[in-house]
């Protein structure tokens, strides 16, 4: 493969990855920044991958960059929330409903994070599935089971 053909292939893949990231609900400037980071990494590593291995490598690195960006933004939101709570004399929490707080405390970390991502942060099922690298069906089933478990815990609290 000639170098011009390789460059044309890279440009086509860059546009394809940007489209994929935008389809995954990433803002266009963030998607362009991620693709730029991917190509910087490609140039820094001095890789000359064959065309059949180039596309999967680029996608893998782009998704890794996206996850890093998501974690960084989540950490930034958490810091802002804690600082806002400190200055406004409020304590961030789930609610004043102690039954719900006790029920949430009884869940494991995975179940708590599902509930918080879906209801508190308003994440879509697809986005949660992408974070955990599982199918959307598994997230739906786990959310349903977690809600049932919460109902059971709250009912037990009220009966006790």
From TrEMBL:
InterPro entries: RNA_pol_sigma-70-like (IPR039425), RNA_pol_sigma-70_dom (IPR014284), RNA_pol_sigma70_r2 (IPR007627), RNA_pol_sigma70_r4_t2 (IPR013249), RNA_pol_sigma_r2 (IPR013325), RNA_pol_sigma_r3/r4-like (IPR013324), WH-like_DNA-bd_sf (IPR036388). It holds the Pfam family Sigma70_r4_2. Residues 15-75 form the RNA polymerase sigma-70 region domain. Residues 99-150 form the RNA polymerase sigma factor 70 region 4 type domain. Keywords: DNA-binding, Sigma factor, Transcription, Transcription regulation. SUPFAM superfamilies: Sigma2 domain of RNA polymerase sigma factors (SSF88946), Sigma3 and sigma4 domains of RNA polymerase sigma factors (SSF88659). NCBIfam families: sigma70-ECF (TIGR02937). Belongs to the sigma-70 factor family. ECF subfamily. This is RNA polymerase sigma factor. It comes from Leuconostoc holzapfelii.
């Amino acid at each position: 493969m000639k170098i011009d053909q390789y460059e044309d292939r890279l440009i086509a893949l860059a546009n394809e990855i940007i489209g994929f990231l935008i389809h995954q609900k990433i803002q266009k400037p963030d998607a362009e920044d991620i693709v730029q980071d991917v190509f910087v990494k490609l140039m820094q590593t001095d890789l000359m991958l064959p065309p059949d291995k180039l596309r999967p490598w680029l996608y893998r690195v782009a998704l890794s960059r996206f996850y890093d960006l998501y974690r960084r933004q989540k950490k930034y939101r958490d810091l802002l929330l804690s600082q806002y709570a400190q200055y406004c004399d409020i304590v961030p929490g789930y609610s004043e409903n102690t039954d719900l707080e006790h029920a949430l405390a009884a869940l494991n970390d995975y179940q708590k994070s599902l509930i918080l991502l879906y209801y508190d942060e308003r994440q879509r099922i697809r986005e949660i599935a992408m974070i955990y690298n599982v199918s959307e069906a598994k997230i739906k089933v786990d959310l349903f089971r977690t809600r049932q478990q919460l109902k059971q815990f709250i009912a037990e609290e009220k009966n006790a």
